[in-house]
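Researcher: We plan to redesign the surface later, but first we want a full-length starting point. Tokens attached.
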């Protein structure tokens, strides 16, 4: 691939901007995946997909998980804080914690707890189910198990089981009533967990989740409630268990200035509590460390205007300054940066299966004769004589003719055949006008809109609601790139639609360095041709937030380790959901369904419409169909 083409491909898809060093375009035009930043090892993603489809006999769509990237991100996070702590001579340590809500899959949690980098990574739980799973996981002796979210007595009793198993458990109080429950159960059982207080700060984050922080936030104690908790603990002689102060100002913080403000406020609250005699050791700053999904390095909602090192530096320096000013010890810093830790480690692979025909595609041969209305002949003349100088004028004329066409049809002045001819001519003229506009240095906004209207609509074999739900729910941008043919310049513009029966099942917003693109540049595609698209950075929240809309289930999944010289090990294969899985999810009983279908068919036999052999064949086919996958095959 020559340098000029590589530069064009980079400008179109921006891989170097958002990939954080994990993905790049290879000289053969395929996407390459690295297990860590600046790691010379790689695998060819197209080669891997081909093997999974042919040798392993999997079907698309595919979720490919790279566990080494999880370890790499944990190492990057830990190193950033270690460097900041060393540079500023900070007196505390860093304790990374993985919040299970971001991706509760066992394989993800286990990879972090394996912790080959000795980061003392812990777990954060926000529900009874998460806590139940976390209690039994093996952790390093110094790591933390944090209990967040609203709690009942069963939740707290489960947390006490973890304390008795030797874990460093902090129950983080969200409400005064929780404090009373914790104290009561601690006195009843004789088991005293560490206690944390979640403060409701005035400071807020930035971006889509800014409303989750600030005075109106769902979680957290007001200043007066914090003081009440301290009073209650002292009265019960449990104040020695108060070990942690927690706050959270929002996920995916886009602007580093908001981080600094929040750290100063939180550090001040910590310092005042220390001066009151509370021996708090840990300051949990929550999540918020963002991911640059579009690569623009700005305050835009799908980006961030800082690096992980800048974030860590500002946290450490801001907390240290306030603590030194207030003459209190530097607390250990706890982070819950789940999005940063997981987003990069999965790639979702789908394929184009068909094209949804648009007006511009449906252009049958037409002939114009002397009996056609003037409106039709005029559109034909416009279409035949459009050029680089008059395309804008002729396009406007065509818009007027289209309005007249529909008005005359509604008045009964032209036939259905005339209307069809007029529509074909109108869309042909639009396509020619758009082609002429591409050569112009100054493209009007109306032609950008026309490009979206005329763009191909490709049917892709996946469910948006299952595998990239944030694209629909909150308009999150995810990088979408063909994983091959990148040594060819794309010539087509397209939007993507999924296989669900929902009109919202589409992607028409794409990553761009300076804007949001409404169409994606793709290569020419024909039915029956393999053309694979990767949706990148889906490792955070998408798996757990995805719904079973239309009863589309989990895709097939592969866990892959990257070795030397382009070699790799397909470590684990996880089959996707079957129809049987999904009907059980919807609370149907498979045996009842089969028996019901059998009765329907047997009734046809009794009426003489089917013979017994044909009926048995139908029943067998219906029964076997339950083991099929939910996606197109």
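Model: Full-length starting sequence:
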């Amino acid at each position: 691939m020559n340098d000029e083409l590589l530069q064009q491909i980079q400008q179109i898809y921006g891989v170097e901007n958002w990939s954080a060093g994990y993905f790049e375009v290879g000289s053969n035009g395929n996407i390459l995946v690295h297990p860590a930043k600046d790691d010379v090892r790689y695998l060819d993603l197209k080669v891997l997909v081909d093997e999974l489809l042919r040798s392993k006999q999997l079907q698309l769509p595919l979720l490919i998980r790279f566990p080494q990237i999880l370890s790499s991100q944990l190492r990057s996070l830990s190193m950033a804080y270690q460097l900041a702590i060393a540079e500023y001579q900070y007196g505390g340590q860093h304790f990374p914690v993985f919040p299970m809500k971001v991706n509760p899959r066992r394989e993800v949690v286990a990879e972090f707890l394996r912790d080959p980098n000795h980061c003392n990574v812990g777990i954060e739980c926000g529900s009874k189910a998460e806590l139940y799973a976390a209690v039994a996981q093996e952790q390093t002796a110094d790591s933390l198990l944090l209990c967040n979210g609203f709690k009942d007595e069963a939740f707290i009793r489960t947390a006490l089981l973890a304390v008795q198993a030797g874990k460093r458990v902090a129950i983080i109080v969200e409400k005064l009533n929780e404090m009373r429950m914790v104290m009561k159960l601690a006195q009843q059982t004789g088991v005293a967990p560490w206690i944390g207080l979640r403060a409701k700060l005035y400071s807020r984050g930035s971006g889509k989740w800014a409303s989750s922080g600030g005075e109106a936030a769902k979680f957290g104690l007001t200043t007066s409630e914090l003081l009440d908790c301290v009073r209650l603990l002292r009265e019960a002689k449990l104040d020695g268990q108060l070990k942690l102060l927690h706050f959270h100002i929002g996920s995916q913080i886009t602007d580093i200035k908001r981080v600094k403000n929040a750290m100063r406020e939180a550090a001040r609250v910590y310092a005042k509590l220390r001066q009151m005699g509370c021996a708090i050791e840990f300051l949990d700053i929550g999540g918020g460390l963002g991911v640059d999904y579009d690569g623009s390095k700005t305050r835009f909602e799908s980006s961030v205007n800082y690096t992980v090192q800048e974030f860590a530096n500002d946290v450490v320096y801001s907390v240290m300054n306030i603590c030194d000013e207030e003459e209190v010890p530097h607390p250990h810093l706890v982070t819950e940066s789940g999005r940063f830790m997981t987003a990069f480690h999965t790639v979702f692979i789908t394929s184009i299966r068909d094209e949804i025909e648009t007006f511009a595609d449906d252009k049958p041969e037409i002939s114009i004769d002397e009996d056609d209305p003037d409106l039709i002949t005029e559109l034909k003349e416009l279409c035949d004589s459009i050029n680089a100088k008059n395309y804008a004028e002729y396009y406007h004329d065509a818009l007027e003719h289209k309005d007249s066409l529909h008005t005359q049809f509604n008045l009964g002045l032209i036939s259905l055949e005339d209307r069809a001819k007029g529509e074909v001519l109108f869309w042909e003229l639009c396509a020619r006008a758009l082609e002429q506009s591409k050569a112009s240095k100054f493209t009007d906004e109306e032609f950008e809109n026309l490009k979206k209207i005329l763009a191909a609509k490709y049917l892709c074999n996946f469910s948006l609601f299952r595998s990239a739900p944030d694209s629909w729910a909150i308009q999150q941008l995810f990088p979408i790139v063909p994983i091959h043919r990148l040594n060819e310049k794309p010539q087509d513009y397209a939007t993507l639609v999924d296989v669900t029966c929902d009109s919202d099942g589409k992607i028409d917003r794409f990553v761009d360095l300076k804007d949001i693109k409404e169409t994606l540049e793709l290569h020419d595609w024909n039915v029956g041709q393999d053309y694979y698209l990767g949706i990148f950075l889906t490792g955070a929240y998408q798996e757990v937030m995805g719904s079973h809309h239309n009863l589309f289930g989990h895709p097939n999944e592969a866990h892959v380790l990257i070795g030397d010289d382009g070699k790799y090990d397909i470590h684990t294969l996880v089959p996707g959901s079957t129809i049987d899985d999904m009907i059980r999810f919807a609370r149907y009983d498979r045996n009842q369904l089969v028996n019901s279908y059998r009765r329907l068919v047997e009734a046809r036999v009794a009426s003489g419409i089917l013979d017994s052999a044909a009926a048995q064949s139908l029943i067998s086919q219906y029964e076997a169909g339950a083991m099929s996958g939910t996606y197109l095959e």
